[in-house]
């Protein structure tokens, strides 16, 4: 069943029957996931070149891997600081089958004598094109609002002054890590729906924070787990992989992820029965420009989805930066793949550590950094 179907089944039949009769619950999410990118291998030119600086469609890619390997990040911008076009759009354009201009320069060596190249590439011409993202699929996330007297442009979208709006970014009750709050079935090696193709979880995501406070049903009340994922870009589709621009902030990548959750026992059934009423998220004041933004209150996803929440006595309209429509599509597609035998469930080869501590960057002396 999809996560939505499973919750309806539990309401009608109870946890015990659901745990006995349902084998797999499919989840989904689609939204901006900045800590994403792709590594590419272009193949060798004649004469060969050791690429030192690389641009794809005018966007700088990271060299320093090997002669003709590169990594392009979703938030990379061109050198004019054009905040409209970036790495996320390059990745989408590759998936769309477009030919993109590749420029590279080098200092030249005896074995790599060429010092520059200007050519065109596409997914057809390059060897490897692999989506490799270090932090996706956040387990719960912030709700953003703005107490200041000016409009703010952020990774959470446009925030109007004096609590003019509030934005959030999660599929809520059908989001993958919300349905497996303690990572019992999701770990290193888990096979997933990724960008319209199939991929894998390859590690815990950066800023993985399993110690975040939780509700009695196990759902974190603050940003907690995240996933590092990998998949073949050549299998993916622009329906579920989209370059995005956040006004006056920059570019990112909209990614669709779906994860099947095996119902191992009644405990997993209870976790997958979670509803938007059970999920609490913190409302942060982005008008306070500090790492430790104050939490104004906690709200449920049912409240957020209602279109309005109350902040300091004011009724504030809410809007989502993620697509619930696409998240539901993903869970349906994943269900159909499993039913047809086109997608097999992979047990994790290693569980995530539960003792990670989230650390912040501070100005330290050399001695303090080693303590």
Class per helix and strand makeup: alpha+beta
* Shape, per Cα inertia axes: globular
Helicity, as a percent range: 10-25%
Termini separation comes to 49 Å
Whole-angstrom Rg? 22 Å
Number of strands: 23
Number of helices: 8
- How much β-strand is present in the residues? 25-35%
Mean pLDDT: 97
Low-confidence stretches: none
Main sheet attributes: strand count, strand direction, barrel closure: 9 strands, antiparallel
Fold and architecture overview:
With 371 residues, the protein is an alpha+beta fold. The chain has a domain at 42-131. 18% of the residues lie in helices and 31% in strands. The protein is built from eight helices and 23 strands. Strands 2, 3, 6, 9, 14, 15, 16, 17 and 18 form a nine-stranded antiparallel β-sheet that branches. Strands 5-4-7-8 form a four-stranded antiparallel β-sheet. Helix 1 (3-13) packs across helix 2 (15-21) and helix 2 (15-21) packs across helix 5. The mean pLDDT is 97.
